[in-house]
Design goal:
The radius of gyration is 14 Å and the shape is globular. It has 106 residues and is α+β, with helices and mostly antiparallel strands. 18% of the residues are buried. A three-stranded antiparallel sheet has the order 3-5-6. The protein is built from three helices and seven strands. The longest helix is centred in the middle third of the chain and has 20 residues. It is 34% helix and 25% strand. β1 and β2 form a beta hairpin.
């Protein structure tokens, strides 16, 4: 969890879920993150019960690719990109989240 916090603290971009801070209380660690009210892409698929169109997939992939480009430019890598880790904000913008399985490259 500490590596996730370090990765999130080192800089943000519009296509990555914003990190506001971390708080420890006894043996629990709490992360304050941007609230993405649209849920994850997998939630969207499960709730609507239909497959995404090519246009919908493209509108999700483009910001995710921008997030990956940003991460790589700062020597970071996200090892768990999947529909459950792509979140949608209140306007439907896709953002990459869950950096629990990430690494900072030397």
């Amino acid at each position: 969890m500490k590596s996730e916090i370090e990765i999130l603290k080192e800089g943000q971009c519009e296509q990555v879920v914003s990190f506001y801070g971390a708080y420890q209380q006894e043996d629990e660690l709490w992360l304050a993150m941007e609230y993405c009210s649209g849920g994850s892409v997998i939630d969207l698929i499960n709730i609507t019960g239909h497959e995404l169109t090519e246009r919908e997939i493209a509108s999700i992939c483009y910001p995710v690719l921008k997030a990956i480009d940003f991460l790589h430019s700062t020597k970071k890598i996200h090892w768990d990109i999947k529909a459950g880790n792509i979140l949608l904000d209140h306007q439907g913008n896709a953002k990459l989240g869950d950096f629990g399985v990430s690494a900072r490259l030397a």
